[in-house]
Amino acid sequence: MIKILLFADLEEKAGQREIDIDSTAMKVGDIRKYLVEKYPQLTAIKSALPAINEEYAQDDVEAKSGDIVAFIPPVSGG
Amino acid sequence: MGYKKLFEITEKEIIIQEVVNKVIDRNAGAINTFIGTVREMTKGKKTLYLKYDAYIPMAEKKLQQIGLEIQSDFPDAHVAITHRIGKLKISDIAVVIAVSTPHRSDAFTASRYAIERIKEIVPIWKKEHWEDGEEWIGDQLEKTPYPSGKPSKEDLT
User: Fold this and answer.
1) With B44 labelled, which of A8, A34, B79, B106 sits at a CA distance of 20 to 30 A?
2) Do B136 and A77 touch (CB under 8 A)?
3) Is B113 a residue whose pLDDT tops 70?
4) What residue ranges do the domains of chain A occupy?
5) Is B102 helix (H, G, I), strand (E, B) or coil?
6) pLDDT at B10 over 70
7) What is the pLDDT averaged over residues B107-123?
């Protein structure tokens, strides 16, 4: 199980912050594609930066079961 | 002195002095503070209030990373940053940065660096609420963030 976290606009569009994917290993880029297929309203996920276990990661990195993969939309703190 | 959390996301009102107190140091000759507040007018649009949200554990880690980046440039610097989330009114304090260094110039530079860096890598988002709508705000720097890098000198001028 890989846990997905969505924030801000993505969270609102998906209607939830957390999504579980029943997979033992999946590349971040494939997770992104999977999410857009399942939730077509998440088009903005294209401009989100992925993070695995609270550290920014690239699309070619593989997430494993137990990992938390977050999609970080452009930030606006400060 | 008790345990001090130097890099913090909070839902409570930020007490400026508490952040400043965390960087007091006998070898410091300067403490610079940056206080970010909620602005009413943005590009002619009137904000009623803001809501901030964050990926809290990662945001606190990234604030800490900013502190370490500052200390790699200024080893004697002490850095504390608190960012508030939740619903904020106009003029409420959203973020307080305090940096102490032996000499004032470094404290100014580091404080400026910290706020610019927050807007690049720290997973915090604000939603502006107007009379006629609301929107999550993103990419205020109008450029692609680069989480592992640093802003160039030009970004800080």
Assistant:
1) A8
2) no
3) yes
4) 2-72
5) coil
6) yes
7) 98
Instruction: Delimit the domains of chain B by residue range.
Output: 7-136
- pLDDT for res A5: 98
- Rounded to the nearest 10 degrees, what angle do helices B104-121 and B56-73 cross at? 150
Per-residue confidence (pLDDT) for residue B138, from 0 to 100: 84
Mutate to test the interface with B, among A3, A68, A76 (most CBs of B within 10 A): A76
DSSP sequence for B57-86 = HHHHHHHHHHHHHHHHH-TT-EEEEEEE-E
Nearest to B97 by CA among B8, B10, B27: B8
Tokens of A16: 């939830």
Residue at token pair 């304090």:
B93
Q: Looking at the predicted structure, is the pLDDT value of residue B69 above 80?
A: yes
Pick the CATH number of A2-72 from 3.50.50.60, 3.10.20.30, 3.90.550.10, 3.30.40.230: 3.10.20.30
A46 in contact with chain B, both atoms CB, cutoff 8 A: no
Q: What is the mean pLDDT of residues A25-29?
A: 98
Q: Which of residues 6-35 of A touch B (CB under 8 A)?
A: 7-9, 12
Calpha distance B7→B62 (Å, rounded) = 9
Between CA B78 and CA B72 the distance in angstroms is: 11
Mean pLDDT of B64-75: 98
* pLDDT at site A68: 98
Q: How many Å apart are CA B84 and CA A73, to the nearest integer?
A: 19
Q: Do A75 and B119 touch (CB under 8 A)?
A: yes
pLDDT at A56: 97
Which residue is closest to B51 within chain A, CA to CA?
A8
